[in-house]
C-alpha cells in the first residue's frame, strides 16, 4: 500500500539530514528535499531531491536494487591565477570528500557499489571574472567516476546557463529545466560567494569508501 504524505506528515529522514530544507511540493505531489551548495541528501523514501545549479555539480547516485539513493551539490575550491589552477590537488580532495560523503551514506544504509547508477548535472559557465570553474567541476566528476568504476548513465552539463534539477532516487528519474533567461543575478552571486568561501576553507582529510 502506498503511504500518503502531505506537508504536515513528511516521511522521516535520517538524523544527519535534519538540517536539510524539506517540504511538500504540491505541484510535484511528493515530499521534497531542497539542496544548497555544499549539501547532500540520501533517502529510501519516494521523495524528490531538488537543487538549482550554476557552476556547481550534482551527482545523482542510487542503488536501484535496494531503493536507496541521493544527490550532492558541490563546487571545487580552485584558486586561479591567469585562468590556471594553483592548487588542483586541494580541489581534488574537496571533490573526493563531497562524492564520498554521498556514496558512503548509500553504502551504510544497504546500498552496494556494484549496483550503483550515476547521473551528473551542472557545471555551467555562469560566473564572471574567473576561470571556467564549471568545466573543472565536470572534468573532476567524470574522472572520479572513471577511477571508481562508476558508469555515468546520463548527464546534462556545461553551457552558459543555470539549471534546476529534480531527482527521484526511488525511480531514478531526473527532470532538468534549463534556466536560459535570468531576471536577476541571484545564482551567479550565490556561486561567487560560495566559491570564495570554500577557496579559503581547510579541506578535511581523506575519506575512505566502505566495501
Automatic annotation (TrEMBL):
Protein known as: Probable chemoreceptor glutamine deamidase CheD
A single GO molecular function term of this UniProt record: protein-glutamine glutaminase activity
Q: Which domain of life is it from?
A: Bacteria
Query: NCBIfam families, alphabetically?
Result: PRK13487.1
The UniProt similarity line reads: Belongs to the CheD family.
Coiled-coil ranges per UniProt: none
Tell me the keywords, alphabetical order.
Chemotaxis, Hydrolase, Receptor
Name a single GO biological process.
chemotaxis
> What is the role of the protein in this entry?
Probably deamidates glutamine residues to glutamate on methyl-accepting chemotaxis receptors (MCPs), playing an important role in chemotaxis.
Per UniProt, what is one Pfam family of this protein?
Answer: CheD
Report the top EC class in one word: hydrolase
Q: Which PANTHER family match?
A: CHEMORECEPTOR GLUTAMINE DEAMIDASE CHED-RELATED
Q: Where is the signal peptide?
A: none
Q: Which Gene3D superfamilies match?
A: 3.30.1330.200
Recorded hits in CDD domains, A to Z, give: CheD (cd16352)
InterPro entries in the cross-refs: CheD-like_sf, Chemorcpt_Glu_NH3ase_CheD, Cytotoxic_necrot_fac-like_cat
> What Enzyme Commission number(s) apply to this enzyme?
3.5.1.44
Lineage start: Bacteria, Pseudomonadati, Pseudomonadota, Gammaproteobacteria, Oceanospirillales
**What does it catalyze?**
L-glutaminyl-[protein] + H2O = L-glutamyl-[protein] + NH4(+)
